[in-house]
Structure formats: structure tokens, C-alpha cells
Amino acid sequence: MSAFNVLITDVQCLNCRRQYSGRIQFKYGNAAFLQYHIGDTVKWGRNNIGNSDFKKVNVYGIAEADSCPLCDSDKIIEEFDIFIEDNVIIRITPMESIGLYLEGGSSEYVVMEMQIVPLFFRV
Ligand SMILES: [Zn+2]
What we know:
Layout: E1 5-12, E2 19-26, E3 29-30, E4 35-36, E5 48-49, E6 56-63, E7 79-85, E8 88-94, H1 99-103, E9 109-113
Parallel strand pairs: 1-4
Antiparallel strand pairs: 1-2, 2-6, 3-5, 6-7, 6-9, 7-8
The structure holds zinc ion.
């Protein structure tokens, strides 16, 4: 099994509608079982996935649990888009489409915007 990181954030159960603290696994940055919250800066190190130079990245996230800890229903959201901008975890939403990750090169993340290089020379 390869290493991953975990984003800990509130998620809402689709059955009981209550919020609970969810653990969302993802593979981006230094994949070393690190724990993150929304607003944290991605750490880089020995086992890097992605690149700290990327400006905007969508990262594939998957819930560790397969049922709600409050009502035990399996009607929960299991797949997420994790939005990272300038290496900061900005927000998380239910995943729109797995196709984005499958077609985007890496199945773990998609670069939405590369770093903007200043234009020093004008013709
Ligand atoms: Zn529930």
C-alpha cells in the first residue's frame, strides 16, 4: 500500500443530515500519512506527489469510512474534490467527475492552473 495523507474536515451525512468529522484520504504533497485541516499549507519532502510550483490543483479525495458514525447509514459522500491554491488547502466539495482525474494525467490530482510567470519583455 502506498502512502497517503488525510484531510480532517466536517462532512454532512446524506441520511441523517448531521455533520461529523470526516477523514478524507488524498495523495498530494509529501505522501507520509500527514494530517491536514482546511487552511493548512501542503508539506513537501521525500515522497512527493505533484509539485509545489503548481498554482491551482484539484486533488482526488476519498473518505476513510464507508458509513456515517452517527446513524450508521452508508448514504454518505465518499469521493471529494480537494481544492489547493498556492499550496494551501482551500476547500472541499463532493466530487463532480472522476473523469477529470482519469483524463488529467495523474489519477490523484489535476493541475488547473500553472504558476504565472511574469512577463518581463514586451515586443
Ligand atoms: Zn448519518
